């Protein structure tokens, strides 16, 4: 990749953006010529990094935790969580080290409801990042036509150029966004409008981003388990314990661990054991609050995304009431659930009121999140929780807090902290030692643990000859983790390696013993 040759060498190039001192720049975010017409390159390299609304862990390091959460949630559609973070004390004017604001981030992700919420806080529409990109530049480059329309109606400047001399309208990559800019400029030149807010735009040609997402894999589609513990008594006991408290996670575990064949009939036979608590399969009717269930609940919630947002809001409400010891009346909580967009998912007030009553009545241990009370997670657990997870009671295991990292990802809370439990050649991950069920687990079969001086590295391949340290691992040598879901399904995730950071009070040698030396781990294959 190199610098583009002067557009003067190409008289057929008609792009107005080519007039940049005879050079065409590359936008490394999209990896295409930013003006879209010229594409010849020579040997010289010109690297111009444009954040384009993206945030990264290294650009958020100097921010407070709540301000980091604010920018992260600006990049999602979870409006309720964003409102809670602002209520907890995050600054709406936060920006990362590249001067990327929350509005920049929201314009990249494309959530109209989040953009409208940020506009309520009077986010500056002309604020530019280190590359001179305004939020309108970001929305145009990412083909967020609906966001472009919102920004133009709110008064976003259209004549501001970035450090490459580009206007927002120069960065359009799709027909809808280009048509929106053309319509707006025509509206301004006509002089018929009093203000930008009275301009209207409608595009009747669907774009690719409007296509439906693929449906999730149904339960009856067989998946290959990540381990084979069929007939293993201790593993059956673990699966039973998990099922008796959290049936969905229990079914997901017995399927992913290979305790049953991945068919409904095989899972049903497992549930006929005498040790299974059949009451866990029955619906519990709480007459006191007249619980809404089944199709009525599905109809009231509206979508899986709305349910996810509601669950996050319930956790924040519990934290606000019982851990921060602040009161919140029902109207205030209901307002947090309101949408900024018409015709969006709307949860009935009577359902919200029943949830608010239950959460406000008394603390619910299952809704407590370790680390949110201000105490270090280890100290908090010692005061309120047992020292081992309930599904491994009586079995030899190694347990404790670890920081879990994978290449390019952090798992668990923002610091990557999870409670890990090694037992029977399995490594479980949960949010706390008091959790009723694991969030994920992995098989240690064929996995090689090692200590690199700062953390334990789990990987399935090593270059034992030491001659070529940069050798790439062969196919099929990835470490696999099963993420358990409450609906009885599970998702398989694979990584080149997993790093476990052990606290200073921990003993890496004890962990290595339970994770297995190389000779022991091969015995599980």
TrEMBL record:
Protein name: ANKRD1 protein
Native source species: Symbiodinium pilosum
Signal sequence region: none
ANK repeats: 131-163
Keyword Repeat appears in the UniProt entry: yes
Keywords recorded for this protein, A-Z: ANK repeat, Repeat
GO BP: regulation of ARF protein signal transduction
Superkingdom of the organism of origin: Eukaryota
Gene: ANKRD1
One MF annotation (Gene Ontology) recorded for this entry: guanyl-nucleotide exchange factor activity
A Pfam family: Ank_2
